[in-house]
Structure formats: structure tokens, C-alpha cells
Amino acid sequence: MNESSLMEKIVSLAKRRGFVFPGSEIYGGLAGTYDYGPMGVLLNNNIKNFWWKKFVEERDDVYAVDASILMHPRVWEASGHTKGFSDPLVEDKVTHKRYRADHLLEDAGVIAHGLSIIDMGEKIRDLKLKSPEGNELTEPKVFNLLVEAGIGAVEGQKESVFLRGEITQGVHVNFKNVLDSMHPKLPFGIAQIGKAFRNEIVPGNFLFRVREFEQMELQYYIKPDSMGGKQHYEYWKQFSMDWYEGLGIRPENLRFRQHEEHERAHYAQDAWDIEFNSPMGWKEAWGIHHRGDWDLRRHQEYSGISLQYLDPNTNERFTPSIIETSGGVGRAFLFVLLDAYREDSLGGETRVYLALSPKIAPVKAMVSPLLKNKPELVARAHEVRALLKKVHSAIAWDDNGNIGKRYRRQDEIGTPFCITVDFDTLGERPELKDTVTLRQRDTGAQERLTVSDVAKRIHLAIQ
Ligand code: ATP
User: Fold this and answer.
1) Nearest atom of ligand 1 to the alpha carbon of 286
2) Does ligand 1 lie within 6 Å of residue 236's CB atom?
3) C-beta 164 within 6 A of ligand 1
4) Looking at ligand 1, which residue's alpha carbon is closest to its atom 1?
5) Residues 285-329: pLDDT tens digits?
6) Does this model's pTM top 0.85?
7) Which of helix, strand or coil describes residue 366?
8) Which of the following CATH numbers is that of domain 363-461: 3.50.50.60, 3.40.50.800, 1.10.510.10, 3.30.1330.10?
9) Which stretch of DSSP H or E encloses residue 351?
10) Where are the domains of the chain?
């Protein structure tokens, strides 16, 4: 399977099986937006819940917040987003299509990270770079990615605000509130999951680059001393990788990459990405950044409110440093699908399945009666499903078409187990009474088990 066709297959499967639809599709779509369908919502929630469990619930040193998407405009001045949150834009002089100058340069083999807008213009001229349509390009200009909105009831007097470009600032502006209400001791973290918006010049590659997306982030506040900081930093780097691997992605498709000095934000003391081996090459999935005390210091300066921490042991006051571990939910979702997609041949037919970890699979098991026109089979199958639902609520029912078709549908959404209730379950052969057929997604292998053994099997698999 070639790489671009893998992405096409994922996009088509996502639509066909109710994972992801193009945003506002019946109106022709809206670029850079997607809607999650019934299966997508389940998978997305499972990814977020797994993050929440590991980064928040299982820890005593992490607090949660859920900040507003709309924030005071000064937040974005303090964070530097109104000035610096931009991408370099060039336009095809004939088609007026817009491109990112850094991406066109990178496609031409130039390392564009860290180049100024003027340097990029010079490079484009030196290399006589053209647009992908073969036309002349305009000079690059700075394009701010913040999405603007107007709030207020009176037309013409609306206040202009930004939809948050990252969820990070919603955490930092609540640092003092968490300190004052929960009295945590340093080091501690504040976690959040929420939507962010970016006016991406060229959204694309399905969910990889969109204009509205969700982020999962932990901001971990530490005492600003370089040795302790390094240990915390290494800890969160590995913790984040372990989490990403915990999604069931094959470890050979994940790697760390340290940012070069010129790629790093001026305040960042260190920055590493976790990258995924995607059809577009190795791409950023996650970022772990040592942000120094930049955010708190700036908000302190711009708000005039002290965001310092008073160490109860030493009575020392200082502005904590921050280690951030952050990633996109949609990107994780896309990478999970890309990694899990499989085609093989089963029973002489080509089949498609998603080798999803049972932990995050949208449906854990499907129960069906062998024949849907036999009331006694249907009734028993409903009882079996009700029993299995005690293990997990996501136990599906399917009595449509023949068994083979039902299996194929479940394979395509990554359901790890299919359970069939037949006449033996009812006791046709007394020695098999109360047993069912359990079919494994990845191998297609089938075995006969009691319902309580099936329940145990599902319980173990989803831990
Ligand atoms: P890029 O260089 O790809 O534009 P970035 O370095 O600006 O991304 P960050 O600001 O570090 O990205 O964002 C944190 C995380 O949010 C990323 O690792 C990614 O998972 C996710 N993310 C960022 N931009 C987008 C987007 N446009 N669509 C989907 N997810 C995104």
C-alpha cells in the first residue's frame, strides 16, 4: 500500500464507518473543519479519557481546569501571540492560492525554521521558487493565526476578541486561582483539555492541520533551578512517550526529536517533539517544552497581579518555571487510525481491519444471534449482551446480514471481539449449553467459551 493511498483509505473509512465527516458537508464543506460522527466521538473520548486518567486522575500533584475559549485580549498581548503567533504567507500571483513560505522552502530542501521573513523572500528569489501551479509568488508576509470574533449586543460596538490559539494561557491565567483555592505545594501541575483555533493558511492532511482542534496539556510548575528542572523535564518527556505508546501505536512509528536552537521560542530552555511516522513523513505529534518562567512573568507584568509562589519551607518568593507537555487530540486520533489500519486476506477475501488497542476501541465487543428470525436465539443474545454490558457499556448489537458481513463491519471499526449466540448456547448439545463463539478481530480465530469467560476476556483486554 503506498503512503498517500493509506491516507485516502483512512479518510474514506472514517466517513464510511461514522468516525469523521467533512465539516458542514451538505453546504459544500468549510475548509479546515471536520465533524466527529458516532464512532469518532467514542474513539476521541477514549483517547481523552486515557490522557485524563494518566495525567490527572492517577496523580496527586495535578489539578484540572477548564478555562473559557474567549479570553481578555490582553492575555494574547502578554503571551506574545498578537505579535508573534504567525506564519509566513506567499500567494500565487495568478491563482491567488495561498501557501506557507516555510513549507515551500522546506519542500525545496531549505531549512526554513528560524529564517526571518526577509531571508525567506531572498531564498525564494535565489532559488526562483514557483508555486505548486508553476506561477510567480508574492513576497512573503507575516500572517497572524489568531481567529478573531466580535462579542457584545450592539452592532457596530462589538468588542473584538480572539478565540484562543492555544489552551496554555487559560491555565497560566488561573495559576493564582489554583494556588489560592487548593494550596498545592511545588512542584505541581495544572491540566486541561479544550478547543483551540488557528487561522491556518493551508489546512490539510485530513485531521493533521485543521482550523479548529482540541488540545490536551499539562503545565507543570517547578522551582526554577536548572538541575531539578532537567530531571522534571526528562521525566515528563518519557511520561509523554509512554502515554503515546499506551495508545497502542507501534513504538517503531514514534520517535523523539530535539528542536534545533533556531527552532525554539526565545524563552524555551529545551524543546522536544514526539514525532509519528506518517504518510507525510515524520510529523509532530506532541511537544514537551521547558518554557522557563516566561508565561507567568509576562502575565504578572501585563496584569499587575503577583503570580509568585511563596515557598513555605524557606519563605522564599519566586516565579516558578514551567514544563509543558502538550498535544492535539485530533492528531493523536489520526495517528492512531493510520497506525492501526490493516489489510489482509481472510477466508480467501481481502478484508480491512483496525488493529486498535481494546482500551481505546470505540466498541469493545459485538453480540449477535446466529439467526435473527429465531426469537429464542435473539432473546438469549440480548441476555448475553446485557451481561457483558456490566463489564463495559460499549457492547454493540448487530443482527443485520450474514455473520461474515457483521464481522467485516466490526473489523473496520476495530472491535476486538465478536460474540455469536447459537443453538448450542441454548443447549442443543447439552455439553455446550451457555457457551458462545468468541471471534478475535486480528486473527479471525474462533473459540467456544462460557459467557462468564468472555466477560473476563473483555475485562482483561480493556485494562
Ligand atoms: P505546527 O508547527 O505543525 O504548525 P505548532 O508547533 O505550532 O504546530 P504547537 O503550538 O506546539 O504546534 O501545538 C501543540 C499541539 O497541538 C501540536 O503538537 C499538535 O498536536 C496540535 N496542533 C497544533 N496545530 C494544529 C492544527 N492546526 N491542527 C491540528 N492539531 C494541531
Assistant:
1) 18
2) no
3) no
4) 284
5) 999 999 999 999 999 999 999 999 999 999 999 999 999 999 999
6) yes
7) strand
8) 3.40.50.800
9) strand 349-354
10) 3-65+159-337, 363-461
